[in-house]
Specification:
This protein is of the alpha+beta class. The protein has a domain of about 80 residues: PDZ domain (Pdz3 Domain). The protein has nine helices and 23 strands.
Length: about 375
């Protein structure tokens, strides 16, 4: 059953809402981790501010929370809800709807100069007119800048003189499988009277080429921000995965590494949007030196061909595969509809599996 997006005003979140967030995110409510220690710290009474960040986030010790696997009690959930009530309005304030021509998407403002991170397929080309819609309905004009279509990273800028909220970019090195995260966007475009829609979940896998989470994203969310629980932007929504609970985001490293090129308005790479080559697998982030599969998306080309979690891809056609990044790069070279042959290690067996590459679902 598809996850439901939260559509209530953030200050009105209730305990039942937080509980449903865990249920929707398919998270176990076991007795692991140190939630009590993290969440029963002194209740934050003021907001922290830095010179770089206009939108303040609550001062709360999340060290135990970030390491834990699940909440320990109902009280833990209530404290988590309280922390989310404080942080969400600040995150939502800098999360904007984006309109380029007749197309709509989402984005997030990340500095006082009005730079907006979004997806490359939302940007399209450099120097196009953009209309940004803040959550309160205020309209601001802007321009598209650069786009890396290989990774689906795009940059825009607000060009009007105005005051607006903005947020910090996070540290990619801190994003690991299991990291708690919040997804914000404007599915279906901006809707008057509706707050930006929020989903809560976990990172499934994280690598330089992409981040996968179980936070549902829908058409119109493309370009919206993915946050960690400290309120830092750790990714940008790229596209819907083969399953609603395995969606793809651009890692924040793509923006940090190519910032100067994006700022200059350079556009490069092939489009990563719907219709591109699609295999339908997620790599095991613990397997650094091999292309080991952590997940095979249901009804994907990989699933139909018989690939399974735990399989290690060692060859694609005649090309040796040494890592999951190698596999991703080789798949991007293949046109949808073409058949490939994978060399697969499954336990003690070595198999040859033929797969017909599909077309990437829309995002």
């Amino acid at each position: 059953m598809p996850q439901r997006a939260l559509r209530d005003d953030f200050p009105r979140l209730r305990f039942g809402t937080v509980l449903s967030l865990f249920v929707c995110g398919a998270l176990s409510l076991g007795h692991a981790g140190e939630w009590s220690k993290a969440l029963h710290a002194e209740e934050p009474s003021k907001l922290t501010e830095t010179a770089k960040t206009a939108v303040a986030v609550p001062a709360i010790d999340l060290s135990g929370l970030l390491k834990s696997d699940a909440p320990h009690s109902v009280d833990d959930l209530k404290w988590l809800e309280k922390a989310m009530q404080q942080v969400l309005p600040k995150l939502a304030a800098a999360s904007v709807a984006v309109q380029v021509g007749s197309a709509s998407g989402s984005g997030v403002i990340i500095d006082k100069e009005g730079h907006v991170l979004t997806a490359a397929h939302v940007v399209g080309e450099a120097n196009k007119d953009v209309l940004f819609i803040l959550p309160d309905g205020k309209l601001l004009k802007g321009k598209t800048l650069g786009a890396n279509h290989d990774l689906d990273a795009g940059l825009m800028q607000i060009t009007e003189q105005a005051e607006f909220p903005y947020l910090d970019m996070g540290d990619y090195e801190k994003v690991k499988a299991g990291t708690w995260c919040l997804s914000i966007g404007h599915p279906g475009g901006f809707q008057k009277g509706r707050s930006p829609v929020v989903r809560f979940g976990r990172v499934l896998s994280a690598r330089k080429s992409l981040v996968s989470t179980d936070c549902t994203i829908m058409p119109g969310d493309s370009g919206g921000p993915l946050f960690d629980l400290e309120g830092k932007v750790i990714g940008i929504h790229s596209r819907i995965g083969g399953a609603l609970t395995a969606n793809i985001h651009v890692p924040i490293s793509a923006y940090r590494d190519d910032w100067e090129r994006l700022l200059k308005g350079e556009v490069w790479g092939r489009d990563a949007d719907a219709g591109g080559p699609y295999l339908g697998v997620i790599g095991d982030t613990e397997a650094k030196d091999q292309a080991k599969l952590a997940q095979v998306n249901p009804n994907s080309p990989a699933d139909r061909a018989g690939l399974k979690p735990g399989d290690v891809i060692v060859k694609m056609n005649e090309q040796e595969i040494a890592s999951f990044d190698d596999l991703s790069a080789e798949v991007r070279k293949i046109r949808p509809g073409r058949q490939i042959t994978l060399g697969v290690k499954r336990g003690e067996e070595t198999l040859e599996i033929k797969v017909r590459i599909g077309s990437r679902p829309g995002g």
